[in-house]
Amino acid sequence: MVVANPEALSVKHSMRRSRPNRGFRSTGMGWLFAAPAVVILLFFFIVPLGYSVVMSTKNWPLLGTDRPTNFPDNYIQLSDNELFMNSLLFTVKYTAIISIILLTLSLGLALLVQESKQGTSGILRTVYFLPVVTGLSTAALLFLGFLNPTVGPMTRILSFFGMEPDWLGTPNLALTSTVMMMTWRFAGFYMVIMLSGLQAIPQDIYESAAVDGANRINTFRYITAPLMKSTFSLCLILILTGGMVAFEQFYILTSGGPDNSTVTIVMTIFREAFSQFEMGSAAAMSVVLLIALVMMNVLQLRLVRKDESGETR
Amino acid sequence: MKRSRLQLIVGIPIAGLFLGPILWVLWGSVRYGDGSFTFNNFSRLFEYGEGLTTYVINTLVVVLITVTGSLVVSLFAGYAFNRIKFKGSKILFIGILSILMVPHASLLIPLFIWLNKLHLGNSLIGLSFVMIMYQLPFSVFMMRNSFESVPKEIDEAAMIDGCGRLSIIFKVLLPAVRPGMITVGLFAFLAAWNEFITALILLNDGTKFTVPLMLVNLVRGDFGSIDFGALQAGIVISAAPCVALFFVLQKYFVGGFSAGAVKG
């Protein structure tokens, strides 16, 4: 039965008042209170997103008002665009490296300091987390100086051992340096997430394992690792997403060099837009990146959900 | 091997690696080339470009608008999502969370053009609104959960006492959701204070640059030589408020990160 009379509704509502945790029902009021959020969402997210899709179907120079539709040329040309394809390969390579390093290191650090918030563990936690509070661009600038052969200490220290690496001078070292900086900046962040995962494991499981005489390796393999799966995949998705949109760290540390060896996808997008002035094809690149990321996220969420539903508690 | 010994052998050397760059930059910021103590590196920043003061004020303007905006928007939206049942609330919430999935780079190209049409191009206000948008999923999620932990009987009791809806929010609920507000404000501050790419793309007038832009310009030096002393001083200035907030608001940091982890 449809109740058209609002008074009847409110009576119904007041009858239910004794039941806790029921908000009141008012569509107008709801949208009124959410209105500021809706305005931000609409004007600074949905409209630009739509814009992006429209731009990607046009030949859209940065200057000038003639913007003929050329769909699907911007997309088709991407596979012929050597810079784009190279940057895609490089970004995937960088993402793979940083994922492996960050995941292992942050899990290791978490296991090392999981015991307590006090004493050595507490101090170590704070130290590992400290770089996380600085901005990414600040951290990159810090390493630019730290790795500099004349002012930074790194080259001087290594020259004791007969090595004088030019940290940003060769493609491999430039990538290594950036990975080093990102590890320094983010290991503590993922350590904190891993710690919250570790703390969610009930202590009595460990106790009964100890009673059964399980050693540390077996305890990790059969208890910690399986129960950390969802924390692990959460960290993985964050690292993968972050890796695929990498820009600032390379822009500041390597400027994409040497010889364009460290140009990422996002860097290519910005160069296409603001150096080549091809807003249309830059938009097409960003739409492709967006679709790839959404697919990655959805796939990952599916896998995690499936895992959790299969778990017995 | 016991964990305490493992901490000594592995943990402390790693801690040294983490602290090394920080100590180096602190030391270098107050040092002349010959090793003597100086504040000269800091004072050179006041003469660089438009002067440090201008860049700090610009950044603080963005911080102020972003923090205030995020607090207002998420307070009301959090209230709506937790206390009011309304048609379309689910789809709206998913819409807000979907901001997380879209890379900022994909939005910046169209935003660059679209903000010009709104007369918000090359402006600190435009930049701030984009920052509020970046923070929206975190802020709204955080505030919705904060309201969740406040019993709804409190609203009803206040309503019976004759309070209006707005005065319930501001007088009764606001004190109860204060921890959530502090977390939202803290993360909005950090995001706005440190943002680089968005400022790089949206601002093109040197008088409007923020601190991170100034620092990067410092290393893109005009004559190929970088003033590393000034750079180190700038890094200290840029990191100092973040580190100070970390030590003062440590528990909100961890709370915010674990909430962020759940939402991710």
By CATH reckoning, the class of chain A would read Mainly Alpha
> Uncertain runs of chain A with pLDDT below 50, 5 residues or more?
1-21
CATH domain topology of chain A:
MetI-like fold
**Roughly what percent helix of chain B?**
over 70%
The total count of strands of chain A amounts to: 1
The CATH homology group name of chain A: MetI-like
- Classify the helix fraction of chain A into a percent range: 55-70%
Name of the CATH class of the largest domain in chain B? Mainly Alpha
What is the distance, rounded to the nearest whole angstrom, between the alpha carbons of the first and last residues of chain B?
36 Å
Say which CATH homologous superfamily of the largest domain in chain B is assigned. Answer: MetI-like
Weakly predicted, low-confidence segments of chain B? none
From the spread of the alpha carbons, the general shape of chain B counts as globular
Number of beta-strand segments of chain B: 1
In N-to-C order, the SSE pattern of chain B is HHHEHHHHHHHHHH
Q: Could you say what the CATH architecture of the largest domain in chain B is?
A: Orthogonal Bundle
* Helical run tally of chain A: 14
Shape of chain A: globular
Mean pLDDT of chain A: 87
Quickly give the structural class of chain B.
Answer: mainly alpha
Instruction: Figure out the total of helices of chain B.
Output: 13
